[in-house]
Design brief:
With 61 residues, this protein is an alpha+beta fold. Helix content is 41%, strand content 26%. It contains two helices and three strands; from the N terminus they run ββαβα. The chain has a three-stranded antiparallel sheet. A hairpin with a 2-residue loop joins β1 and β2. The longest helix has 13 residues. It is globular.
């Protein structure tokens, strides 16, 4: 549907890229961010389904 950044496609209205990147950086650093995040919806954001799917995979172990 558009450009792909950090493994996620950019969509017309998607999750805030900075918030998503920070969330995954905390995960990669070994920090448990707690409850599933709530990201802001912005123009030219990450594809919501792709992000949600990746988070679900990581949380499932």
């Amino acid at each position: 549907m558009g450009d792909e950044v950090e493994g996620f496609e950019l969509t017309r209205r998607g999750y805030d890229r900075v918030q998503v990147d920070e969330y995954f950086a905390r995960l990669a650093g070994g920090t448990d961010p707690g409850a599933p995040p709530r990201f802001d919806i912005v123009r030219r954001g990450y594809d919501r389904d792709q992000v949600d799917s990746r988070i679900a995979q990581l949380r499932a172990g």
